[in-house]
Amino acid sequence: MRRLFVGLIAMFGYLVGTAVSAQTQSNALTGTLKKARDAGAVTIGYREASFPFSYLDARREPIGYSIDLCRLIVDAMSDELGRELQLKWVPVTSASRFDALTKGEIDLECGSTTQNRERQAIASFSPVIFVAGTKLMVRKDAGIRSFRDLNGKTVVVTAGTTNEKAMNDLQARFKTGATLVTTPDHDQSFAQFMAGKADAYAGDDILLYGMIARANAEDKVMVVGDFLSYDPYGIMFRRDDPAMAALVDKMFRTIAESRELEHSYNRWFMHKLPGGERLRLPMSAQLESIFGTLSAKPD
């Protein structure tokens, strides 16, 4: 009886200690990790037409390079919290993504978002996952080969993007004489251009190449000109959340060291994609250097 009593006391102490430990851990959590633990889920903001970073497959489900990386972040969050987190999906646009994040409507923004100093005042970002820049998509017979040929032309851009800012800055500096029109998202910009309502579409070069590949339009349109902006992409999450920032940084360093980050890149930019497209875009020397730095162990 005495042994049974001692055993019960020990078990009770263990259970109380475990409960106290769990409660202490829960109380210690803040920011995105606490929100995810309380909800049992992570809400991902995705883009419907940022191929091949974040877009909808034939079943209308989000897929892409950025989506894969966000799934890995959620896996790391699940490991940190000791419970499996569910995924909730919310579509966002170039214009709505920042408000959706700061208002808590999404926890991660997984698309083709450029991180720059202005945006870092609004949100935090993962390490760089891709480097793009603004270029022009034009019809092959349009006679447009650079921004200097845009006088009297109409250029469509997606609202809320760095491309829109780059074209406005270009107009202010060089007086290009172009008329800028905007649409809410990339697929609408591309549709307007393809319908002949714009002479050029200014967008991130990789997104333009992706749209051409998906539309099988290589014989009709092309991407021209110098880079008009520098656009390093990152996964976006809320600011002032050091625990989340540390988790994201650690996760990226881990997958860079294991070369899973490189394999993910190759899956979406070198190999045949779910819809049959193939971009055949080798990693740039700049991005290779960024990934190499991530995988380097500190001295």
From TrEMBL:
Domain (Solute-binding protein family 3/N-terminal) ranges: 41-272
Family from the record: Belongs to the bacterial solute-binding protein 3 family.
Species, as recorded: Bosea vestrisii
UniProt entry keywords in alphabetical sequence: Signal, Transport
UniProt superkingdom: Bacteria
Annotated InterPro entries: Bact_solute-bind_prot3, Solute-binding_3/MltF_N
Protein name from the UniProt record: Amino acid ABC transporter substrate-binding protein
Xref: SMART domains: PBPb
Signal peptide span: 1-22
